[in-house]
Amino acid sequence: MSEIAYQNKDVTLKFLTEALKHKNLGIITFAYKVIDKEYADYVKGAIMMTKVAQLIFDEGVEKGVEKGIEKGMEYTLVRCMRNMLYKGYEAAVIADLLEQKADYVEKVCSLIRSNPEDTDVEIVQKYKG
């Protein structure tokens, strides 16, 4: 490996990683001519770790999105219950219309009645205790 590349290993690694991301084969081919086998193996390992980290990150994002959708649906359901309750529907009718368990709807409606100033998020939090 050239002395300059060796002294700036972190910059070299970042440069090669970016080149690989964008599939710039000319730069990659040139880089492998000026670096030694040991450093090439190091770069390869670092790039593989970057890919593993990206996979882990993507999986975390996917799970976070799923959880966010789930929570959003809970809040929307409470909003619907609140609106129906304010329009005069009984908890049993709300449960039937929203296809939810009667005891769940009764408990949420009770929380809404006793805490009308609470947001839908706060009602869900109180329900989950």
Automatic annotation (TrEMBL):
* UniProt superkingdom: Bacteria
Task: Tell me the protein's name.
Answer: Uncharacterized protein
Q: Which organism is it from?
A: Murimonas intestini
Lineage summary? Bacteria, Bacillati, Bacillota, Clostridia, Lachnospirales
